Amino acid sequence: MGRDDENAQGARLKSASQFDLVAIGSAFGLKGDLIHAERHGTGHINDTFAVTYVHGEGMTRYVHQRINREVFSDPVGLMDNIRRVTGHLRSKLLETVSSEIERRVLTLVPKQDGSVYHIDAEDDMWRTYDFVERAQTHDIVRSPALAFEAAKAFGAFQRDLADLPPPRLNDTIPAFHDTPSRFAALQAAIGEDTANRAARAAAEIEFVVGHEPSLGRLLDLHRAGEIPERVTHNDTKLNNVMIDVETAEGVCVIDLDTVMPGLTLFDFGDMVRTSTSFSMEDERDLSQVHMQMPLFEALVRGYLQTAGSFLSRVEIGEMVFAGKLITLEIGIRFLTDYLVGDTYFRIHREEHNLDRCRAQFRLVESITEQQESMLKVVERVASERPWQH
Length: 389
Ligand code: GN1
Ligand code: MG
Description:
Blueprint: H1 3-10, H2 21-27, E1 33-39, E2 47-55, E3 58-67, H3 75-96, H4 101-104, E4 118-119, E5 125-130, E6 135-136, H5 144-161, H6 179-192, H7 202-211, H8 217-223, E7 230-232, E8 241-244, E9 250-253, E10 260-262, H9 264-275, H10 293-307, H11 313-317, H12 319-340, H13 352-383
Antiparallel strand pairs: 1-2, 2-3, 3-5, 4-5, 6-8, 7-10, 8-9
Helix pairs in contact: 5-9, 5-10, 6-12, 9-10, 9-12, 10-13, 12-13
Bound molecules: 2-acetamido-2-deoxy-1-O-phosphono-alpha-D-glucopyranose and magnesium ion (MG).
């Protein structure tokens, strides 16, 4: 299927003009006239729109997001997390950097009554952020420098949230990175085979079954008290960090829906999944999917530069395994969604979730082939740093 077909499938999505974005803007008290609105970004879950307002002093852009309430069953708790997290990050920035604080953390636009979400006539929940200008996201890693910057930004994010005051954040999706329970969901999907697709995915199913013994390793270490719970992002794909178009610096971490208590390794693992191969998440030519050591080393360097101050030896020792596990886990989730008939991740073509799954599993293989060298890289980079832990 070519791009046009993919776009045609994508066009089944509601476009900006099919929502009453003027009403959303006025609910958030946006000043001026809406002159442009378009879909924005490549997320698989929420609906995101960039809107431009013209007013007396010029133009201002905002982002409206319609929260997927099937995926997020407690959107009020979710928004409370984001309000606290962005507030805390902002207070850290005020202590440490002097310039452009408004570009370094997402800024929620409050309604007149102070609330940070709006429920519209269709019972949809919306939020609005200031648009982060002069920055972009990348769906494919292009260079070690980009991997470094992304990892550095996600590491700083974890570091700056380490002292978030209580209470504990809400679990926006319980058991989100519980790989054994993701495996159980896959087994249920295989058993039911509602879309009659299990035969088509026999090789992929076999691949997962072969990995079953190691799926619980990080959670077991956590339960044994070897790895602490911290505040983590949980969706650290490369395109969830905005990169400054002039300085190429990782300027702002976005997509905060799954910021909640977790293991730092979930985050590092998803960085490995999305930033060590020069290929798309849904690449069909699997010969393109390959874990590139220079990208991995850049990732380790960037991440340890900011997160190295608080990570424990055990966390550092599991970084390579986490890359493999989280890549496998997201592949399991794509496979499960394929088997149940594509109900969770937005798809843009036939067998999209199976393609995504296959690319993840190829990357798992590539990591497995290179894991000894990857461990040496982590050891070497870590040994260059002074350790307190
Ligand atoms: C989803 O929304 P988006 O595209 O950033 C998913 C992540 C997956 C990712 C795979 C809430 O993230 O967990 O890793 O797709 N988010 C949720 O690309 O399930
Ligand atoms: Mg997301």
